[in-house]
Amino acid sequence: MALAIITGASSGIGAEFARQLAGRGVDEFWFVARRGERMVSLGEELGVKYKVIEADLATRDGIDKVLGALRDERPSVKYFISAAGFGDFGGFDEITPECVEKMIDLNVKASVTLTHAVIPFMERGGRIITLGSGSAFTPLPYFNVYAAGKAFILHYTKALNYEIKKYGLRATCFCPGWVHTEFIGKAVENGGSSTPKASALKPLLNCKKVVRGCVRAANRGKAMYVTGKFTKLQHILYRLAPHGLLSKVWLC
Prior knowledge:
The protein is of the alpha/beta class. The chain is 47% helix and 17% strand. 43% of the residues are buried.
């Protein structure tokens, strides 16, 4: 029986990973997110065995719920998908300290903590997928905490991939551009003076298509999967162009 643990499973990219993996032979899931009803609906939609862990991973209590389930059940894990996260636009003087702390705790701390906790339970041939972003390639004014967190996740995942090869495991950082999910609406909802309009965040990538590509890349053992023409160009320019120039282009 192949088991996948997915954080951020209640919507968007996390839920789509569940749909893609259910079509590739995974027959048991642990769904981890704050919205329990949505995860129940997802499990019923897929018609698979599932466990719902209703937890806010930006908190220590939320992380401990997952750690406790791992200790109690000691599962054999085929896939770990770390897709929980959020981003808020705004200058350093617009975003509250609480929001900054929550972004770091969820996007970085929770991802690393849970990845390290899951690895001892992974079977040989297992795959870890972390959610990076095209923003990992560019210093982004007014989105700096989110983008810096994704740069951290990118480097962390690529280094982790090297470390875990000897155990027959691989880790892939998924770096898409703007994907058509509820993430964008939430990122701009605070509406500060430096917040772009949702319509400016394009082109929007098809969630189903990009997640399908990421699953294929992970199964091939790729350390990074970049998708979207604009994001691929970002990745190339990151290695060639001055980062100050890239930031100015972002602000245009």
